[in-house]
Amino acid sequence: MLNIKLLLFFSLLFNSFFIFSQENIHENNLFRNEIKATVIRFKEEVNFNKAASSFLEKNWDSTLVYSMRQIALTKNIKLLDYCHYFRGISFKEKKLINESKNEFGKVSIAFQFNYKVKNNLGEIALEQKDFKKALFYFQQIEKLSDKDSYDIINSIVLHNIGLCYLHLKKIDKAEIYLFKSSKLQEIEKDTLLLIGSYIDLANLYYEQYKDNQAIPYFEKAYHLSKKVKSFELKRVATLNMAAVEENRKNFPLALVYRKEYETWKDSLNDQNKVWAVAQVEKKFAVKQKQKEVDVLAAENKAKIAERNGFLISSVLLLILFGTGVYFYRQKIRNNRIILAQKNELDELNATKDKLFSIVSHDLRSSVNALKTSNGKLMENLENKNFTELDVLLHNNSTIANGAYNLLDNLLNWALLQTKQAYFYQESLHLATIVQHVEYNYKPLMLNANLNFKSDVSKTDYVFADMDSLKIIIRNMLDNAIKFSKENGTISIYSRPSSEEFCYLVIEDTGLGMNETTRQELLKETLLLSKKKNDDIIGTGLGMQLCKSLIRKNGGKLEIESEENVGTKMIIILPKFKNHG
Amino acid sequence: MDNINVLIIEDTVAESDALVKVLTENNYNIVGIARTYQDALTMFYQNTVDIVVIDVFLDGKPDGITFAETINIVPNGVKPFVFLTSSKDRQIFERAKLTRPFSFLMKPFNELEILYALEMAVEKFYEQTNVFHSEDQNTVISNDTLFIKKNKSLKKVKIEDIVYIEVEDRYCNIITDVEKFVILISLTKIIHLLDPAKFCQTHRNYIVNISKIEEIIVNDNLVILKGNHKVTLSDKYKDFVKNFRILK
């Protein structure tokens, strides 16, 4: 008897488990379609849509959440029914049986799939061992025509009713239902369900000690169980067989069944064990992987840090290098500038030294000549040699004049170099200025037996600094006189002016110069030209001064010359444009 | 025509002598030679001076510039002046330049240069530049004097002495109480420069000094001026008569 009880318990457990899984598998299309249709009809109900889709995907938690929101928002009975149904199923799946029961209770009777609700309620009642209630629900379903409930497998309902009767000890009724259900399952060829039904039927008979009726069912169940893969079923069937043989005192066979049972149990256990081991292994592997991942992450982190460090240090190095290069170049440039300045200074110094030596020489010789001449003068005065006196006096005046010019140039040059001279460009009547300068030279040229012609345009106004213009003309006339031969001609005239410039020409019929000298004279160098001929070529200071001054006035100097024919010095000066 | 009165401010006797010599030779009238700043001021305000020649350095100090600055303060008392200097020192020049109008002459200078400098001073002072060296004008007109270049030197005529002006081509005959001479200036220029309250045109060729008019005989188209000068009055210019109160 103990064995039988045990068997029954097993069977019961098996059955309840079995029923739930069946319901899930047979979640049928009609219901799904209906839900989808409802969803389309209530498109705007976002929460319902989400709840329904979650439900169809068997995502129970989200189903609960969204259906709850929908319930709070809507008053549409149909939607409410659906939502409560969703919640009922969800709670049931989550094994919250009481909650599930409440939710199903809330579904209105008008609900299209009310029989499903009842079926579920029945299953819940069965679960809770409230067999009477379960029976009540199942019977209600049974009463429905096949059409109304065709998506519920009849055999399961019948089986469940049979189970209820079995538990309620209404053996005959149980027998009828279980038998019906087994018949149906035979027709449907649902082996799994059939085995369960056979086992239950066998148990039913066995409990009534109708061994003859029971044993064939046990055997049927056993043989069928060999065809299925479910270890659980195999185990139960085998165990039942073992118990039966034991009771029949057929111990060797019982032993065989026991052993088989053990193997199935072991298989089950093994499967479980394998599963557990696999689980552990998986966990371990996952842990290992996690570790690896951690290590890799750490490595990555380290790498990134290293890379960043490298990057930063390289950038820093680059900057350092850049600044280094910059300063180095700056230094080189400075050095170059300094070098250039030094060279320039050296050159200037050389020029200055040369200038001093030449000037001192010239000045000394001039003054010395004057001194000697004065001595002679006094001597002649004592002797009352008046004709000689006249010559000497003229000689003296020439020397003094030369020395004065040299000094004047020197002074002007110094002023120009130190930029201390007052410089103011204004409109000047060229002819008048030329007149002023030549006024001083006329007696000189007369003395030297030189012809002088002056024909400067009276309409030319130049834009120049008066004093520098005078210095330029003075020097040009000086040079012209210096390089002229006896009875030569010096002419000063203007060439027709252009838009921008006036051209003043100082022409002599003197020594002239060759091309090299001409080029050298025009060079914009501060160096003095070499002293070739002591008597004739002077310091070159005058020429330098002229060039600098012309440049400063915005003009140019041109020279046309032919050796032994004469020279034309052409001074080009900017025109004064807005004169009346 | 009178000579131009020149005040010389120069502390070196040799140089002032040379200046005096040149200027007298060219018919300039030397009203005085000041040796110091104080003398200069006294002489400047005691005499009728037309041009001042100022040496920048008096006794080693730039008192010449100080003098120019002093006379510049009184706006109507200023006369044209020329600085004499032997140095082109920029600092001195920058200071001297502030006494506008500014003209200067570098020492040593010759006769032409000093005469030129005086002419330039007058031109710049009365803001009529490029007059004395142009070929179509030889007169600068201030509000009370005509400065006329005659040969190498300048002469002056008081505008109030002019009786009338007769225009002949590019020339103008100036008729004063005592004399008659020709200057080179265009009619448009002279009309522009003369005070319209004192002079008016009576004819295409005549400009008369209103204060010299004795009688206007409209019927004969005649204006009779002081000294019995007779000037034609053309119809075109008769309007000027309206400016007078006519006795009937």
TrEMBL record, chain A:
Top-level EC class: transferase
InterPro entries linked: HATPase_C_sf (IPR036890), HATPase_dom (IPR003594), His_kinase_dom (IPR005467), HisK_dim/P_sf (IPR036097), Sig_transdc_His_kin-like_C (IPR004358), TPR-like_helical_dom_sf (IPR011990), TPR_rpt (IPR019734)
One term of GO molecular function: phosphorelay sensor kinase activity
Listed Gene3D superfamilies: 1.10.287.130, Histidine kinase-like ATPase, C-terminal domain, Tetratricopeptide repeat domain
Keywords: Kinase, Membrane, Phosphoprotein, TPR repeat, Transferase, Transmembrane, Transmembrane helix
Location of the Histidine kinase domain: 358-577
Protein name: histidine kinase
Organism in which the protein naturally occurs: Flavobacterium pectinovorum
TrEMBL record, chain B:
Organism: Flavobacterium pectinovorum
Residues found modified as 4-aspartylphosphate: D55
Annotated HTH LytTR-type domain residues: 146-234
Phosphoprotein in keyword set: yes
Database matches in InterPro entries: CheY-like_superfamily (IPR011006), LytR-like (IPR046947), LytTR_DNA-bd_dom (IPR007492), Sig_transdc_resp-reg_receiver (IPR001789)
Gene3D superfamilies: 3.40.50.2300, LytTr DNA-binding domain
Annotated keywords: DNA-binding, Phosphoprotein
Superkingdom of origin organism: Bacteria
SMART domains xrefs: LytTR, REC
Boundaries of every Response regulatory domain copy: 5-122
Name of the featured protein: DNA-binding response regulator
Molecular function as annotated in GO: DNA binding; phosphorelay response regulator activity
SUPFAM superfamilies in the cross-refs: CheY-like
Keyword Phosphoprotein attributed: yes
